[in-house]
Automatic annotation (TrEMBL):
Residues 562-757 form the Lon proteolytic domain. This is endopeptidase La. It comes from Grimontia celer. It catalyses: Hydrolysis of proteins in presence of ATP. Keywords: Coiled coil, Hydrolase, Protease, Serine protease. It holds the Pfam family AAA_32. PANTHER family: ATP DEPENDENT LON PROTEASE FAMILY MEMBER. PROSITE patterns: LON_PROTEOLYTIC. It comes from the Bacteria. The active site is at S652, K695. The gene is lon_1. Its EC number is 3.4.21.53. The keyword Isomerase does not apply. GO terms for biological process: protein catabolic process; proteolysis.
Amino acid sequence: MPHQPLTSDKLYRTSQLTKLDVSSTKHLEPLEEIVGQDRARQAVEFAMSIKEKGYNIYAVGQNGLGKRTMVMRYLSRHWQYTHPVYDWCYVANFQDSRIPKVLQMPAGRGLKLKKDLEKMMGRLGKSLQLAFDNEMYYSRADALKNRLTEMQEGALGELSQEAKLQSVSLSITTSGDYQFIALNGEEPHTEETFDALSQKEQEHFDQAIRDLEIQLRGLVRKLTEWEETYAEKQQKLDEEIATEAISHHMVKLIESYSDLPQVKKYLKEMQGDVLENLDIFLQESEEQAALAYAALDKKLPRRYQVNVLVAQEEEVPPVIVEDSPTYHNIFGYVENATYKGTVFTDFSLIRPGSIHRANGGVLLIDAVKVLERPYVWDGLKRALSSRKASLSSLEREVTLSGTISLEPEPIPLDVKIILFGDYHTYKLLQNYDAEFSELFRVTADFEDDMPRNDDSEMKYAMFISSICHDNNLLHCDPGAIGRIIEHSSRQSGDQDKLSLHSADIANLLRESNYQAKVSNANIIRASHVEKALASRDMRVSRLRDHVMEGFTTGTTLIDTKGKAVGQVNALSVLATNDFSFGAPNRITATTSFGDGAVLDIERSVELGGSIHSKGVMILTAYLSSLLGKQAKIPLTTRITFEQSYGGVDGDSASMAEFCAILSAISGIPLRQDLSITGSMNQFGQAQPIGGVNEKIEGFFDVCTIKGPKSSQGVIIPRSNVHNLMLRKDIIHAVEKGKFHIYAIDHVSEAIELFTGIPAGKPDSKGKFKTDTVLHKAAEKLDALRKKSSKA
């Protein structure tokens, strides 16, 4: 029986939209969820409901599946978060400035504390200035000073009087030292007058001065003690005055934070530190004040400020997306400041990373970007394992010297990390990082496609509606919805499935929206979708046009009419990053006397891949099982892809190669108006291949270029029929009988289509019926065997 080509209804599945009862997406309820990703959504829900360590998420799938969109939509609309969120602040450690303290505060109160302290410090500065700039303070301070002066002058006066009785005067040198000098009456002795004295008188003066110096040393010790006592009394007075000024402000502030013991303790410590460093509030010189505010000094006013590292919104858990996961962007850093050539740093220069901002919530990061940045992956694992966010300088990580000398207290970490990545990265992490499975215990596996039925088409229509609503696009009529669904099915490569690459559908809608607006339409119709698809095809099809030009000019040799021995048209797919297309390739086979080997020229010159070579070995095995059971095939066959100058891989040409070889052996010519694609197993059964739509379209285009003929067509495996979503022009040609697509189950059917002769089957003795292709081939081989045996 002649093989019947497929009818046009098998070549394309039209969207029926039987459940759509609205005139456009404007009246269609947008889909809340990401269509078709129930498995991934349930994984995210499960992970987000468990607070224990290690239940972080790796969202795995190709780009464009809407992984981030789905997760963000779930977190914003459905995530029930019951734990409180906190503000995190760094403040000075008054005992050790190198280890700033961290304050954990309810959301919103970190900024309030900062503002309260700033206001209080402003008022406190004025209050202290007034407290130390009034007559009462001056009189009390003067009284202490005068008392000291009186005691010092009295003691020195007594010693001076005693010295005078021994004709010695007590004087003060220009450097401030005390000095005893022998007197000659009322005037000091000169060297001449002193030398003129008798030895006894000189000795008397020396002895007197030595005794007086002993007394002076004792007096100096007393003077020092009195000055220390005075300083203590002065400091006590200052503290007494300052305490009165400070308490008025601090008591109210401490009371307002009495519910936060950690903050209350800090405020009390700060009050004591202010009393110890009063002089910073009483600077008289502007230069000194400027230096005090800029330099790294324990008396800095910034010492009493609050560095609000993270300020959260009340009752709103943070969801942070980190698009540039550098070490500093993730884990924070400490800045350096410069003042008059001096580099310094302190707690107020600590800056947060995204892990701090996401604390108490979720941090979303691209896995590949994390692995590309040095030390980020190790830091992330360390933070998740310890459940602490530690500020460690990158210089320290790479063992280089840095100017940062701070070691801030780590912040307790309660965060969910969601990594987005592809399968390759996921496998690498699983295989080469033992900690990965412990820290990312939940995999959200995103589907590439979903089954196509009436219910899923309706969901897809709602998904299209949500894109239109969210992006403020023109709405789609049912025709446009159906065309987009059909395009999605084509993208999935299956009539019975829909692609879940939401980014591609969103882009198509934006482009269709543009075409509709250019046409001054108020709604997107199927024609606008077609224009958008045609425009996209034109933008990315330069390589295809270049390849087709070779067929137009005759540079690439191909026959689409007539018959030829050992020559067949196979089909292949060429692809760029964003576009794939089909084109025919001529495969030829030649035979010569030999030992039955099938030589793959592509493999011999190292242009054939391992899968292609496997296909050649399989067809060789099938050929041997047909024609070489009784005796060795006395031929060597060579096959090659003509005009192929790059690598060849894949087994989708194995049926074509088998047909070419059998034609070369039997001498029966093959039709050139047919092309074939499909692989085969060792029993000759046709196996499905990829890119079937592109391959058929490629041969159709070449037939159009070389001159259409009503007998032209393509042979495909029957198992590929459900993958057909062909262009409309091909479907119209099939409907008019100007192009044919044949589906086969066995390579013998292809032989019959190519030759118009039955392929033939071996009987129990391995013989073939006459008037079959295999009988003709067997006859020729038997003749060769007889000739070779006679020779």
